[in-house]
Amino acid sequence: MKTLKEILAKKPLHFNFVSPDANVIDAIALMKIEDMSYVIVMESHSYLGILSEKDYTQKVVLQNKNSSSTKVKDIMTIDLPIVTVEDACEKCMEIMNTFKVPHLPMFEGHTFKGVITINDLLAASLEEKTTAKSEENYLKDKLNPSTNQHYWV
């Protein structure tokens, strides 16, 4: 199974970073622009947490708070488990399942490298299965020439 580093190498760069002092409405607007369900909360190039649609729904909408005056730092999630770029996808899936979260911060040493999402893992798994199936079919054709159709003129 792939490592998270391999998945990270294929992910496009995103610009979904916000300051902890940003208003929640601005973070939600950035989610819409970037077409993502979360934003990364950073300060001075340091990872602080993640603000997700779930945070917004549970901590702003359901508590009848004002999106324009509530700060990101007041509702962001700061206690997510972390993974490293060397971790296998399978380990990451286990952590996501255990903690019931769809995304995890990823580090290399003490350096924040990005966020791995359940969608990233699903895409990698499907790609791996498709590749394995293609290789299996290729080998079957090569090892069993009777399945190859030949047309003689």
Overview of the structural elements:
42% of the residues lie in helices and 20% in strands. The protein is of the alpha/beta class and 153 residues long. The protein has one domain: CBS-domain (Roll). The strands form 2 sheets. Strands 1-2-3 form a 3-stranded mixed β-sheet. Strands 4-5-6 form a 3-stranded mixed β-sheet. 22% of the residues are buried.
> Any idea what the radius of gyration is?
21 Å
Give the strand content. 15-25%
Question: What is the tally of helical segments?
Answer: 5
Strand order of the largest sheet: 1-2-3
CATH superfamily: CBS-domain
Q: Any idea what the CATH architecture is?
A: Roll
Terminus-to-terminus distance: 46 Å
| Total count of domains | 1
Output the helix-strand order: HEHEEHEHEEH
What is the fold's blueprint, element by element?
Elements: H1 4-10, E1 17-18, H2 24-34, E2 38-43, E3 46-52, H3 53-61, E4 83-84, H4 89-99, E5 103-108, E6 111-117, H5 118-143
Parallel strand pairs: 1-2, 4-5
Antiparallel strand pairs: 2-3, 5-6
Concise account of the structure shown:
The chain has 153 residues and is of the alpha/beta class. It has one domain: CBS-domain, CATH 3.10.580.
